[in-house]
Structures are given as structure tokens and as C-alpha cells.
Amino acid sequence: MIPYLFGASPAICSSFLQGKPTTLPFEETGNGMYYLLYATSLRLSDLGYTNKSQSNLGITFNDLHEYVAGLKRAIKTPSEEYAKIGLQKDGKYLQINSNILQIENELYAPIRPKRVTRRGETPSDALLRGGIEYIEVRSLDINPFSPIGVDAQQVRFLDLFMVWCALADAPEMSSDELLCTRTNWNRVILEGRKPGLTLGDWLRKRAVPAGSGGQRSVPRFTPRGADPGQYPRWPGISAGLRRAAGLL
User: Fold this and answer.
1) SS3 category, 148
2) Taking the model in full, what pTM does it have?
3) Span 184-195, average pLDDT
4) What are the structural domains of the chain?
5) Are 54 and 108 within 8 A, CB to CB?
């Protein structure tokens, strides 16, 4: 949803390719820039701020303890790709270690649960100690039309969207559904503006038009706004958010 609505990086500098061949149908601007005609956010693709070796980690957000366990497992899992680089060259360290995740903050996920750490504490230990304190949204591109990189409309939408995500029913996500979600994610960031683009619907095993999910979701935000009397009591919302954060 977020890159579909707010993606703002359909072009990249040719240096990102590092001279390597690519199967993506890039077009050139003639000044060292490559772009995909229907892309929304190449920054979120494998060419941007991501890590291919993390694609098969299977870290989900079904349960806080499962999330932390997956994070700790990735830190201890060796990577053949990083092992080829080596740890040192000419007496200088090239990397901390050769595991898939060298530190927990290297998990390049679109969204991450977080808690402020205490001295000597890892991010995952902080989560286990006190639950989720805040959510880190990492899928928002810099808005090129705003002098500060984001505008009020985006912030208001994200605020409403995140509260809705916290309060809406959220069945556990299976490994098959996670794979489908990642496939859809890649389609949206690489060709999200393509007319007639379809995305996989894991539940119904069929393709649906891109954007239809947003069209179904937005009306869910509006009825309560039309009638303030439909809002749930704030103590109930607070308790729901605290349960979602693992505090109760």
C-alpha cells in the first residue's frame, strides 16, 4: 500500500548496477540515469536499500517471540556470499562477521517493531524486556515535492493506516501467504503504475487488479469518521494497542 501510493524513486543512477547485467527492462535518460517506466520505488528493490540474502529468512510478525527468534537465528546463520568476501584484508576489517545478519539493525524489512535500548542491550533483548514501544516504517520514499521530504497528507494517512492496522483483525500469516505478499511487493515497486497490473490473492488463489486492496481498505476508514458515536472507547483502544505490543 505505502509504495503504491507514495513511491517516488522510479529512477536510479547507473552506478547502482555496478556494471553487472540485469534482467530489468531499464530505459536510459542519457545522463547516467536508468529508469523503469512503471516503477514506484526502486529504492525498495534489490537494487536499493535491501539485501537479497535476507529474502529467505522467513521472519514474520505473527508473534513477538517468533520475530525475535527469527532475528537471532539470522545473526547466527552463515552466508556463503559474505564468507567469500572474508573478514580482513591488509589488516583491515571488511565486515564484522560472515553471517546473513551481522547486526540486528541490518534487517532490511519494510517495517520493524522497536524499543529504545538500554546500555549494552540489543534491540531484540529490548523488545523481549518491554514489548514494542514504536513501529519503524521504512517503506516511505522522500517526497520530492516537499522541502522536508514528507507532507502533512502523507503523515495523516500513515497515522490513520497504522492505527487501523493495529486494531483490525490480523490472522496469522503462513509461509505461503508471506511468499505471496513478497511477490506482490516486488510487483508494486517495479511496475506498480502499469495499467492492468494484477497481484496475487493468496486466500482466493487468483489474481486481482493492483490497487483494489486499497480501494477496499479506504472505505473501512471512513464510516467511523462520518459518525463520531461509532468510535470505540479510548481505554479499549489503548488496551488493544498494548496487547498488540506484547505489554499485557
Assistant:
1) coil
2) 0.72
3) 90
4) 1-195+235-246 (3.30.590.20)
5) yes
